[in-house]
Design goal:
The protein has 412 residues and is of the alpha/beta class. It has twelve helices and 13 strands. Helix 3 packs parallel to helix 9, helix 5 packs parallel to helix 6 and helix 11 crosses helix 12. It is globular. The chain binds 4'-deoxy-4'-aminopyridoxal-5'-phosphate.
Amino acid sequence: MALYKFDKSIDLFVRATKKIPNGIYGHVSPALAVPGEFPYYAASGKGSRYTDVDGNEFIDYMCAYGPMVLGYNHPEVEAAVAAQRERGNCLNHPGEVMVQLAEALTDIVPFADWAVFAKNGSDVTTWALQVAREHTQKRKIIMARGTYHGAHAWCTPGHGGIIDEDRAQIKYFKFNDIDSFYKVIEEHRGDIAGCIMTPYHHPTFADQIMPAEGWWKKIQKACNDEGIVLILDDVRAGFRLDLRGSQEYFGFSPDMACYCKALGNCYPISSCVGRDYLKGAASRVFLTGSYWNSAVPMVAALTVIKVLKETNGIQKMMDFGNKLSKSLIDLAKSHGLQYKFTGPPTIPFPSFANENNFFRNQRFCSEITRRGSFFHPSHNWFVSTAHSDEDLKETLKAADEAFAIVKKEFGS
Ligand code: PMP
């Protein structure tokens, strides 16, 4: 198998660093994978695959880090988008589609009575905190330490430009440690506006952690008893675990939920939905953006919901995710290697069970990526409804070679 090269990606990156701070920033920075071993720039995408600027085609196990859920350039989404683009996108007023989308979301998410729209996950997580504060007239927000809720000052994992005051009212507990959760409530009783949490713990550079038995019931009860607004940050997991929202997968019911990634199948849109009792506060917290009323991403979102529903898309992704993990674990075993998956089947995080750093995984992911399956070594993956058995077959062929290299270099 001829191995991919990334010469044009690297040339572009060198040019970029002269004009763009860091060249490529944020979660897609080359520094978060293995510099030089992965493509840096993409050229096009179709279905479960994309092509980089060097002309290499990849079966994509990152799905644009989540936004691609039905496949790149999905025919039905693109047809709806093209028709809307013809009529107009960003105009003086929102289109009818904004009302239709709010109706569709409140229809599928059982606890939701209203919905608002923005562009990014961070827009809506930050806004949701303000709604909780406006409603309760309290200051503090509690969250699980190490959880990613976006790039705004109160939650960014970065340090640049952040002052203590940005986080003075944010208090932390440990995910799945109910005593630490009760303790933080005890310490700040009477001054907690909201609790924001992802449906399960999905840090970068670490295994994913599913909620312990009874975790969500206890969280929901404590929030209800204490008058704390429970905000589900479903930006990453939303519409990949359950079409009704991830709270249904884990059996609880929050007061607000935030969505982004899977909602638009690569068109920029996010949403916050909430219960009726918060509608007054929601209407008093200012919310806007230059492109936030654009109709094209809203049409895309409406179509994504329709297609996921009509095609039983979540189950399709679950089935593929289960096949992917089982077949890779079995293949690794046949090489005498211990490979494992954490998290849900549709948002898996694989790694080697017996490594205490990411060297082995980085080596494996580099080798398989050079053979046409894009495997990220330190961020959770995403699967889509476009992934097929044919994709898996090709991936396993490449994995067989990559596992053999890892075995030779690292041993069992
Ligand atoms: N919350 C979670 C759980 C996320 O995964 C992300 C994005 N990775 C965000 C919030 C922020 O979303 P965005 O990058 O669109 O602002």
